[in-house]
Amino acid sequence: MAYTTVPTITTGDIATAAWGNTYIKDNFAQTGPALVTTDGDMLIATGSNVLKRMPMVDSNDRVIQERGGTEADLSAVTTGDTIVGQSSGVMGLETAMTQGQAEAGSDTQVRGVTAQRIAQAIASQAAGESAAKVWCSITAAGALETNDLNVASVTDVGTGNRDVNYTTAFSSVNYTVVPGIGAVTSSSDVVARTGARTTADVNISCRNAANSLVDEPNNLVGFGAQ
Fold it and tell me: Is domain 132-223 annotated with CATH 2.60.40?
């Protein structure tokens, strides 16, 4: 049935049963009290003199997602929580990323991330064994060049022979050092080699084609756990 506009009543009109059913009973059935059936229902107009029942909340009085709600218990929200999609058609709260999750880098859930957590993730990756823990360039005279990583000093122990001393030691001697040669000043082929090492330093030597020690610029990069 639909709402029927009530005609103007004039003197002498008689309210018959049909008149009452059409203009009172049927019209009342199209009003709010008759249309709503469930706690949380609302009414919207879908046309002229036409109302439609619209469920708005779930059984916990939370606005349903189809009406712009989250259907999440917001009383449980704490600092850093994020409202995210948890599965198809389902939204919920996710806690902020922890330091452990940031450092592991394996959590796939969307979470609130702070600048602190980003810094912790970067620091964790930098501390991993795949990241360089030491690098530097050394002049032909045996001096440490400007800019280095984790190098406390370079000790010139003789012609073509240098000890590179670390600021932070490795956790064991089972680390890798890759030596290299800079722009050589002699005419002979020169190679750089690693020698004795401890957790705190490594020896680097430069030798020419005759296997003689020569002073040439060299560099190194090291990887391992600290």
Answer: yes
